[in-house]
Design brief:
Blueprint lengths: L10 E6 L5 E8 L3 E7 L2 E8 L7 E7 L3 E2 L3 H8 L11 E11 L5 E10 L2 E17 L2 E13 L14 E15 L1
Antiparallel strand pairs: 1-4, 1-11, 2-3, 2-11, 3-6, 4-5, 5-7, 7-8, 8-9, 9-10, 10-11
Protein name: Polyisoprenoid-binding protein
């Protein structure tokens, strides 16, 4: 009898390619519109075993001060103690705990721990695997992941009545990884 484990297969290391990736979010404002934003400074690693995402592991670090909503005053407010407190909590992190195939082609559920400020909570990302492309510049792996979090769960509690800032934050990431 032969037993195979994840360690039986060669593992491949990948690093996020920031030139072909984006970490985006949006949140309701005043109950009538949506504010879009993104983070510009981040690193991410992916380890795969085989040709699928099953048994893959992910870890990301985002520099919160790189937040960009295209409005400097708003960005500065988001960096303040009212929201992210970037002086005290400069990084946001995600570390995967498991990934499960859903039975749909190229569709997975990615479970992991998201840390914002001083709070770590489990989140589940809905992941679409775009596959692997090979070129003269090496191999690239692409995916899209999305989830929704409640900002109050992470002590981002700024909520004056006049501000009208929503509590649910939609996160959509488009990632391309370069094989190492």
């Amino acid at each position: 009898m032969i037993f195979l484990t994840v360690s039986s297969f060669a593992q491949t290391q990948w690093k996020v390619d920031p030139y072909h990736s984006s970490l985006n979010f949006n949140i309701e404002h005043s109950g009538i519109s949506i504010v879009n934003g993104k983070f510009l400074d981040y690193t991410g690693n992916l380890t795969t075993a085989g040709e699928t995402l099953e048994n893959a592991t992910y870890d990301f670090t985002v520099k919160v001060a790189s937040i960009n909503t295209s409005v400097e005053d708003r960005d500065n407010h988001l960096k303040s103690a009212d929201f992210f407190e970037v002086e005290k909590y400069p990084n946001m992190t995600f570390k995967s705990t498991k990934i499960l195939a859903t039975g749909k082609p190229d569709h997975y559920l990615l479970y992991g721990d998201l840390t914002i400020k001083d709070v770590t909570k489990e989140v589940i990302f809905d992941v679409y695997y775009g596959g692997i492309a090979k070129s003269d510049k090496g191999e690239k792996l692409g995916l899209k992941a999305k989830t929704t979090i409640n900002r109050f769960d992470y002590n981002i509690n700024f909520d004056p009545v006049a501000a009208g800032v929503g509590k649910e934050v939609s996160i959509v990431v488009h990632l391309q990884f370069a094989k190492q």
